[in-house]
Structures are given as structure tokens and as C-alpha cells.
Amino acid sequence: MSATGTVLAASDVSRTLYAVLGLGALAAAVLPRLVRRKPLSMPMVFLAAGALCGLLPLPLPDVDPVANGVWVEHVTEICVIVSLMGAGLALNRPFGWRAWAGPWRLIGITLPLTVATTAVLAWLLLDWPWACALLIGALLAPTDPVLAAEVRVGEPTDDEDDEDEVRFTLTAEAGLNDGLAFPFVLAALALAAAGGSWAAVDWARWFGVDLLAKAAIGVAVGLVLGRLLGRMFFRAGAPSLRLSEHMEGFVALAATFLSYGLAELARGYGFVAVFVTACAVRAAERGHGYHKVLHGFTEQIERLLTAGLLFLLGHYLITDGLAALTWQMVLLALALIVVVRPVTGWIAQHGFVTGPRERVVTAVFGLRGIGSLFYLSYALGHHGFDGQARDLWALTAATVALSVLLHGVSATPAIRHLDRLREVRPLDTPP
């Protein structure tokens, strides 16, 4: 091809990309209202659109998450932390050990059980080394109800009893486990660095530093910064600092990036810090309308990023990912979604105060999403998994896609059924 032809081809790619970006942004604004209360979700549409574009001879750039791992890591990282800020700001229920018993059960029981069970299945079905099996268990463990609006808490209100237990538990679980899955990813990296020898890993350091200390630093940074920002937003002496009076939503991004950056500089878990910061800001003046402004801004940014990433995910699956899939990988992905998560979620809720229908819905709707893509790109930025990189991406992308499709179709009917039953008899207490 001549130099002129090359320039024209590159120009066509950029023009097509701009058109796709514009159409995608417009669709991200319109689709949530079109699919509301239907067995369909915006993520499903963008995933399908990406797959369709992968089938058509459009001049779009190739999507290779292995070759472009650095930018994939950072884009997914931004999407996750913005989502965490939005989740924390949306929660109306004040923090408390008893009030948050549902999320604690899923974090303390379901999360480690999911990691362990998925790792064993990967070792048995795929014959992967233990380090690789543990990694896939860790990165597929976090949940992401952002991908199904029906199963997450809506916008902030001034009524702390406005949330039903299912939506609250799933939203709070996702806010917490996006950060608390990190120790298991680090365990897989340590196991890979030790050549797959469990005995060669310093598990005492992992438990003390990676599991406890880094999580504690994240919580501490989030609490301190959230309280400082909350005081500044709502009770600062100078009107120019009392930002709640100016109603500027982009301040949510400032809180997000500041919290994440400070926690990471302190060698803590930034994901945990962002979610705790959001909860602390919300607690500073729980009924103030500024929370709706902050939440609305983060939701818009999150929607755009999520739509773009799912479009690219669908494109990648069609152009490369599906070719790398084996039937064992598909079986593992299905087992995680329809067996492992429901069973471990049900076990965690044994004896909980909710009724059986709510426990079933909470156990089933543990969506996999952007957090899994971030953890994988993060892990592949370290040594130890180069040989399995394409298999890991194919399995992770297929699992997220299956979760988007299966949960996207079933979330609205399931939640609407619970809402109808709740109008007749409260479901938060067993009959």
C-alpha cells in the first residue's frame, strides 16, 4: 500500500471511531430509559453492538487486551473507582455491623469460598498450574451490580429505610469486594513468583500485610478523607469552600481520585478507600440534596466508561476471544455463574433475617464485570502468567459476557416479582 493509501486508511479508522464514539455516547443516554423494566439491560446492548461490529468489515482498530494491557488496566481502573464512589454515595443506610450484616456475610463467606471453589475447578477442568488457577478464582470473585440497574440501589434519598435488603446487600457487597479481592490476586502473584510452591510463599507476610494491613490503610484513608471532605462540603466556614451550596458534580471525581491516589501512595487498597470515602461523605449530611448531584455525575461517567468497555469486550470476543475458548472454559464460566455463586451466596445467608426468596435473589445475582477485567490486566502486568495470558483473557471475557447476558435477562423479572410480593407482605422478615 502506498503512503497516501496508508494515510487515507488511518483517516478512515479515526473517522469511524469518532462516529462510533458519538453514537455510543448518545445510546448510553437513551438506552437506560428504553430498556427500563424490560428483560434487557444497557450492557447487553453494548456487548451485542461490539460483537456485531466485530462481524462487519468496519475500519475499526483491533482490540488486543494482551498487547495493550497497560491502557486496559488504567481504563478499567478508572471505571471501577468511579463506580465505587457512585455506589457509596447511593447507600442510604447508616454504617453498622448489624445493619450491614448481609454484605459482611457475602464478603466473609461467599468471597473466599468463590475464590477457592473456582480455583479448584480451574485446576481440575483446565489442568492449569495452581498459581494460574488461584488467579482466575480471585479475579472472577468480585461482583459488579452496576451491570444490572435493577439489582442495585438507586439514587440517594433522605430515607434510610428506603432500600430493600436485596438491592442494599448487592450494592454494598460490590463496593467492598472490589477491593477485598485484591489479597487473593496478590496471593496468586506470590505463588507464581515462588514457582508454584505453596511452601515457598511467605504466607505470614501475606496475611499480615496483604490481607490485613493494606485493607486497614484503605479504610483509614477513606474514613479520614471522607470526614474531612464531608465537613468541607457541608459545614466549612467560608462559603467558597462549602461546595454543597454550589452543586458542582465534578467534585465527586476529585474525591474519587484523591482518595484512591492517597491510599495507593500509603500502600493501601485504593478501591477500599474510595468506597469508604463515599460512605463517609454521605454520612456527613445524609439528607442533603448535594449527594444526588455527586451521584448523578459519577453515574454518567460510569455509564460512558462501562458502555465503551463492554463494546470493546464484545468486539474482542468475536475477533479473537471465542477462538481461544475451549469447552472446559465454557463449563467453568457456567459453573461459576449458575452453581458456585448461588450456592456460596446461599450458604453465607444461612440464618439471615430475610425470607427465602430474597436470599435466593441475593445469592444468584452476583454479576461479574469490570473489576474482573482490571484484576486480570493488573496481574498480567507482572511476571508469571505470560504463557496463559490469552487463555485467561478468553475465559474472563466469556464469563463477564455470560454474566451480562444471563443476569441482564433475568434481573428485571426477578426484582419486579419481589417488589410485587413486598407490596402484599414485607419480605425482609420471614413469614
What does this structure look like?
The chain is mostly helical. It has a single domain (36-424), classed as Na+/H+ antiporter like fold, CATH 1.20.1530. Helices cover 71% and strands 0% of the residues. The protein contains 15 helices and no strands. Helix 1 (3-34) packs across helix 11 (290-324), helix 3 (69-90) runs parallel beside helix 10 and helix 6 (165-180) packs parallel to helix 13 (356-364). The termini are far apart. Residues 1-9 have low confidence and may be disordered.
Question: What can be said about this structure in brief?
Answer:
This protein has helices at 3-34, 42-55, 69-90, 101-126, 130-139, 165-180, 182-193, 203-235, 251-265, 270-284, 290-324, 327-348, 356-364, 370-380, 389-424. It is mainly alpha-helical.
List keywords for this structure.
431 residues, mainly alpha, Na+/H+ antiporter like fold, 15 helices, globular
Number of helical segments with 4 or more residues: 15
State the oligomer: single chain
Question: CATH topology, anyone?
Answer: Na+/H+ antiporter like fold
- Which descriptor suits the 3D outline? globular
Give the name of the CATH architecture.
Up-down Bundle
What is the CA–CA distance across the termini? 74 Å
Please provide the ordered H/E string of secondary-structure elements: HHHHHHHHHHHHHHH
Radius of gyration: 21 Å
Give me the count of strands: 0
Topology of this protein?
Layout: H1 3-34, H2 42-55, H3 69-90, H4 101-126, H5 130-139, H6 165-180, H7 182-193, H8 203-235, H9 251-265, H10 270-284, H11 290-324, H12 327-348, H13 356-364, H14 370-380, H15 389-424
